[in-house]
Structure formats: C-alpha cells, structure tokens
Amino acid sequence: MGSRSRLTLGDLAASLGVSKTTVSNAFSRPDQLSADLRARILEAAYAAGYAGPDPVARMLRTRRAGALGLILPESLPFSLDEPTVTELLRGIADACDERRLGLLIVPGGRDAPDTRSISDVAVDGLIAYSLPHGAAALDAAIRRGVPLVVIDQPRLPGVTTVSVDDRGGAREAARHLVGLGHRRIAIVGLPFHPDGYTGPATEARIDEARFDVAAARLAGYRDALAEAGMDPDDAPVFECAHSDEDLGLEAGRHLLGRPDRPTAVLAMSDRLAIGVAAAAREARIDVPRDLSVVGFNDTEAAARARPALTTVRQPLRLKGYAAARLILDAPAESEGAATSAPGASVSGAEAGSSASEAVGPAGSGAGGPRAAADEFDLPVELVVRRSTAAPRRS
After folding, report:
1. Domain span at residue 50?
2. Pairing mode, strands 199-200 and 160-164
3. Which terminus of the chain has fewer CB atoms gathered within 10 Å of its CB, N or C?
C-alpha cells in the first residue's frame, strides 16, 4: 500500500472494498459499524501503518474542532487544587464524554493582558469560569464569536450565564445564625477585586467590586442581618485574595483577636471556613460552643471537617454539565454568536440531577430556581451540621 506518508483513507477503503465513509466511521463514529467490521478495518489500518483520518483535514472540512475550551481564572496548578474547580471540571467532562469531544484548559488569568491563547485555540465553544468584570480574557472570548457560556461571573448582557443563587444562599446562612441567637457576626469574604489584596475590606472596595459572587454573597448576609434589626455595617468583613485554608486562618486570627470577638463567622467558601476553624483551635476557642462557623459550597471537605461544617450546598458538577450542554445543544444557526441558546436541554444522570428542571421557571424562596432570557440560576440549599450552635451565655 505504500509508506505511511502516502497512504490515504481512500487507499485503505479501496483495499478493503468499503467506502471512505465506512473507514472514517471506524475511527470517529464506531457506533455506526458492527464490531466485526470495525475490528477488520482497524486491524488492516494498523498493519498498513495508517493512524486514522488527518485531524487537521477533518477540521478544515467540517469546520469543527471537536473540543470545548474552558477559561480558568487562575493558573492550572492553582485551579486543580481548588475542589470547586475539580467538581466543575467533572461536570463539563461528563457532557464532553457524551459527545466524544475533547476539553482544552485555556489559561485566562484574572487580568492577563496576553490573550493569544484564547484567540488562537481551536475550539467549538468556550466556557469562561468566574472572571472579574473587565477581564481581558473574557473580552477575547467574546471577540472570537464562538458560542460562549459564563459560569458564575460576570453577568453580561447578551452572554448566557450559569450560576447559583449566591445572594439567597448567603441570606439563609446568615438567617440560620441569627435564628440561633448570634448578634456578633463577622464575615470572611472571597476577593472583591483581582489585585491580590488580603485584609479588612473597605466599603469603597465593596462598592466597586469586580467579582459578582463576593458582592452577591455579602449582600445576602447583610440582608439577613438587616431583617433581624441589626446594623449590617457592624459586621466586620475580612477579604481574602483566594479561597484557601491559609487565608482563612489569617482571617480567623484577625477576627478572633478583636476586642469584640465574634460569636459566629460567615465564610464565603468551605476552605475559608475550615481555615477560620483552625484559627479557633489555635486560640483554644471551641467550635461550636464558643464560635459558630458557616461555609459555602459543600465540598467533600465540609463533611469531613471536625466538627462537620454547616454550609450552603451548590450543585458544582451540575453547573459545569449545564454550561457545556447549553453550548453543545445550541441550534446550529446560533453557532458563531457570542451566546448559546437558552432553553436547551441540559439534563443528565451523570450530573446527579436534572439540569433542565434546575433552570426552569422562576421559583420562590432562597435558592429557588430562576431563568431569565440568558441567565440560569441553579438552586442552593443550607446544610446544617455540627459547626453551628447557639452562642454561649455570658
């Protein structure tokens, strides 16, 4: 048949007495062939040194790359240490696996000026995860003109967003503490700006926040405090540059060292909450007898913590799955637009529940599902465990 450099799909098809489409299906659409026929084609291809259709030629012919791109806000090593990202990746991978598609991780960086990796990468659609307003990576993704879905933030006109009811979930977490009788409550926040700052948050930083999630969760906490007749401004806010236990420890040391030490802490992530609990142990402050701690996300570590962490559960894996399916199920005529089609089916057993139900009509109460023209908010749920209790009486 000649050398590998001269062998073509047509040559292999002619030698086997089948069509070129049949040979192509043996590599790319095995469900279209019987097992015996596919095995015969692959055996002959291997013997002839033929590895399969040229992927570059296939991309030029079909105008499809066969992959989705995921833009992450941090470096890949940092992101893979974050449990919320790994759960999100599982959901996206579930959807890609169903369609036999690849997944490319695209370095975005929160304020990285070089966006060539986004402009040049061969993908059929992009998912942007948790970027700040004004991120150069997101601007580049919009300019690409491929289908785009944003997970969590920022919410932009004309761009489909999959997120959760951050404000409603935070409100329920704060209501839980107020209902237990807590009045000295502190807040450990996710970043309001992508500038690496860690320390007490000023109202100016909060008012000009570039991260929607931190702003929404803080608003939810303050909603509940105001409902209880408390002054929300009396609750100190400590901002952390990232979600990790070390920064939660730093925040806990700062807040627990105050003269008016809080009896409860609301943390915007489980990792921050676990760090606060570590600071309490370091200071010989018992959780929950002397300090109640609430997290957000309900990662695996929340249930394993000692004591087990009260937290707000969000469907991380489903969120990733839903975002990918919104791109993959978009009508063909919408390809090339910067948005994906709302209303696409995003259900899947691998994601753990029905996403199409989760993004249905508007609901009521904290965590109730809500769908706008291009926004899908998945429900959240307060999970009460052993890290919260009524404050000890003096």
Report:
1. 9-62
2. unpaired
3. C
